[in-house]
Structure formats: C-alpha cells, structure tokens
Amino acid sequence: MIKLIECPRDAMQGMPDFIDTAIKAAYINQLLEIGFDTVDFGSFVSPKAIPQMRDTEEVLSLLDLHRSKSKLLAIVANLRGAEDAFHFPEIDYLGFPLSVSETFQQRNTNASIAQALETVETIQNLCQTKGKEMVVYLSMGFGNPYGDPYSPELVAEFVQKLDDLEIKIISLSDTVGLADNKLIKELFKVQFEAFPEIEFGAHLHSRPESISEKVEAALEGGCRRFDGALKGFGGCPMAKDELVGNMDTEIMIDTLESKGYQLDLNKRELIEAVKLANYVFQSPL
Description:
Elements: E1 3-6, H1 8-12, H2 21-32, E2 38-44, H3 56-61, E3 71-76, H4 79-85, E4 93-99, H5 102-109, H6 113-130, E5 133-139, H7 152-164, E6 169-174, H8 181-194, E7 199-204, H9 211-220, E8 225-228, H10 249-258, H11 267-282
Parallel strand pairs: 1-2, 1-8, 2-3, 3-4, 4-5, 5-6, 6-7
C-alpha cells in the first residue's frame, strides 16, 4: 500500500511573505478532503527561525477534521516544541529533523547531532506515554553541500541508533536535491533489508523533470511512503540560499498510478486543491 504525505508546511515555510492564517487553514482543509494518508500541516518551532509557522496553533483550531481520514503531522525541533504539540489530541505524528550533517543540524535546529539524538530519545519516550508516534526525518540523507562526511554506511549507523530507540518511521530526506537514482534505489533497498520492522519514507526534493524517475527508483528500492507538495512548491530555508522544490504531488500521483498503484484519492477535490495552491503560492499575499 502506498502512503502519500502531503506537506503544506514544507511548501509554505520558506515563503517570504506571511500567508494569512485563514488562507492557510482553508488550503489545508481542502487538502484534508483529498484522502492523503497524512497531512504535514505545521510546526511548533521558534517564530524567529520560521516566521511563517508562528500561527500553527491558530491554523489547527480552524481545521475541519470530522470528515477527513487523513492524519495530522507537526514538525518539532526541540523539547519545548514537542511539549506544545502534545497539548493537541488532533495531532497524530510528531516529526523531528535529525541530520547526518553536523553543519545542517546546527543550521536547522541550533544543536549538535549528539544533542539532537538526546532530544529524539526524550521526545520518543514522551510519545510512547502520550499516544503519539514519532517520525524522524533523516535530513541530508543522500549527501550534503557542506563537505561534511557522508556515506550510506553513515546513514545506516544513524538508523541503527533510531532503531535502538524504537523509532518506527524514518523518512530519508534529500534536503537539497543531491540524490541520483542509483543511490536512492540502493539506500532504500539496504535499509529495508537491514531494518524490516521500520517504515522508511522518501522526503525528496527535486527539479520537476527528475521527479518521476526518483519515484521509480525509490519504488524499486522498496519505498512505499512518499512526501510531496502540490505544484512542487517549497523547500528548506535552512539548507542553502536557493530553495530546491518539493516533489510535485501531481507528478508523483501520475507516476504511481502508471505503475498500477491504486491511491484512493478524491480527484475532484485534488483539482480544487491545485487551483487553491496556485492562489496561495503565486498570487500577491
């Protein structure tokens, strides 16, 4: 079974102009009508670091969750953010960005890898007592632009540490679009074989012309969980100066369906969401 995770949070967070809270909520409510497995809707992080996400709590209060089968995921970068997220029973998943790059970990969460791992352990322990599940995003999982050490073996070392903490969902993240198809296929294949009890996801960033082949490479490696954003908007503002867009959800859907996968999505609501995305991300705000 394919799981599609739609990421309006990732699409919005790097936008230079603040998107009105009501517009954010209207857009996410439209996404909730489509039937995605999960919607990554917001983050509990410092408003100084990510000003766009300063209204996540307000947005959550405006979401109509009664008719939607989608689960909600919120990103946290430290214990304080996790404690804020724990107040909301509507949130199913807490996502944490752990990096195999020391430079990016510092840039993204203002902490070392060692400190971040300690935070992961603390949040995971709390998730287990509070009925939520942790999703760890292993960022710079396919290489980094900083010259920090990288190898598939290093990724496996991180996965082993997370497995020891009983993390059950790990999303391998190509934060700056460096991954080639061979690496994508092999990295997923090796991880699935070594850790069959873990659900591995693909959070890839890509130029539009490379999306289909990256999806196919991940599929061949065994991946069945994919993050994306309508129209491919977004990217990580902490990674480098130029944003590399998210995987375009429409292209991913077309690719997956061409391979015979049944996604059980409401296409009429998807069309309406694409129209709204064009307004949210391209019109003057």
